[in-house]
Amino acid sequence: MRCDFIADKFQMSFLKIFIYNFDQNTAVMNTKTIIRLLSPLVLLSFSCAAQQKPIPYGNNPAAGKYYSIRGVKLYCEIYGAGEPILMIHGNGGSMEAFKKNVPFFSKRYKVILVDSRAHGKSTDPSDSLTFEQMADDFNALLDTLHIAKTYVIGWSDGGINALLLAIRHPDKVIKLASTGANLTPDSTALLPSLWKGMVKQYNEQKNIKWKTAKEKNDWKIFLLDYFQPNIPLSDLKKIRCPSLIICGDHDLIPVEHTALIYHNIPKAYLWVVPNSGHPTLIEHTDDFNKKVNEFFTGKGF
Questions:
Q1: Helix (H, G, I), strand (E, B), or coil: what is residue 113?
Q2: Which residues contact 7 (CB under 8 A, 6 or more apart)?
Q3: What is residue 272's three-state secondary structure?
Q4: Is residue 198 a contact partner of residue 299, using CB atoms and an 8 Å limit?
Q5: Strand partners for 272
Q6: Cβ-based neighbours of 157, under 8 Å, separated by 6 or more
Q7: CA distance 32 to 12
Q8: What is the C-alpha to C-alpha distance for residues 154 and 152, in angstroms, rounded to an integer?
Q9: Whether residue 155 has pLDDT greater than 50
Q10: What is the pLDDT of residues 67-105, one digit of tens each?
């Protein structure tokens, strides 16, 4: 039941009783009447606050479950009903990255959130990691969930994985939206200043013997972006599904590189988000949700 509707009813009742109990001669409100009237309204406020508590995406036992996928346990949360959408986060992140997008899409689709291998709650003790390995994980997860094909939204490394899922498992992807993806690890695909910083970090830390599991994992996912991806343009031509390729106009990925991706996918559309950095889906949530949904439903494209 809508809390705002109930609260409005209480407020109207309060106003009526206030008018009725107002002593025009003394201009004093009956104190007992005020307390009696306000008590249920205060209780209602606490009840509504509890109902409106934000969903802890990425840490929600009510929706979360682990799945044994290709030697690791992938953590997954599912929201909503309808046609499926797989959302894939970026390097060093987790499914929480989509917390501003899930409320919109879960009203229209079955939203599948997953922590990628070696990210979030999906631990991976191995000493190496590849994008191809991760894309194959998502394919196997879809099989486990008995999902024949899905829409895909990927951000940053997740955008790379969206492309690779469509390349390696084309029958699985209905349409994809990839924002902030790159094809190679170099200064043509990343801002030169960002790449320079990554080279500096690699040279300073490459000989360190990491001790803790967290240190080893952090280094592993850093190396993922330092040496990968390596997607040839010819592979992009294997993508058969309609693809919305996205970047911000001052993204970490140069617009020219995003345009290169767009030009080499047969059924691609390009969206350069004005006044946006790398997190297009966060900085421009409403526009992002609306535009991607319109693309998936075929409206305006």
A1: strand
A2: 41, 44, 45, 48
A3: strand
A4: no
A5: 247
A6: 88, 89, 90, 91, 116, 131, 224, 225
A7: 18
A8: 6
A9: yes
A10: 999 999 999 999 999 999 999 999 999 999 999 999 999
For all residues of the chain together, what is the average pLDDT?
88
- Measuring CA to CA, which residue among 221, 194, 36 is closest to residue 123? 221
If you ran DSSP here, which 8-state letter would residue 97 be given?
Answer: G
**What's the DSSP call for residue 284?**
T
For the chain, how many residues are written? 301
Residue 258 is encoded by which pair of tokens?
């995003």
User: Which residue is it, tokens 């993204």?
Assistant: 251
Position 53 scores a pLDDT of 83
Distance CA(96)–CA(76), nearest Å, equals: 11
Beta-bridged to residue 153, according to DSSP, are 87, 177
Amino acid code (one letter) for 239: I
* pLDDT score for 262: 98
| Domain ranges (residues) in the chain | 3-51, 64-297
Taking residue 198's Cβ as centre, other Cβ atoms within 10 Å add up to: 17
Answering whether pTM is above 0.85, one says: no
User: Which region, left, alpha or beta, applies to residue 113 given φ > 0 means left and ψ of -120 to 50 means alpha?
Assistant: beta
Rounded Cα distance between 141 and 74, Å, is 8
Residue 51: its pLDDT value, please?
55
Which helix (H) or strand (E) element contains residue 245? strand 243-248
- pLDDT score, position 270: 98
CATH topology of domain 64-297: Rossmann fold (3.40.50)
According to DSSP, the β-strands at 72-80 and 110-114 are antiparallel
| Rounded Cα–Cα distance for residues 80 and 235 (Å) | 33
- CB of 175 within 8 A of CB of 242? yes
Residue 92 identity: G
8 A C-beta contact, residue 172 and residue 165 = yes
Cα–Cα dist 10/8, whole Å: 5
Query: Which helix H or strand E contains 177, and what residues bound it?
Result: strand 173-179
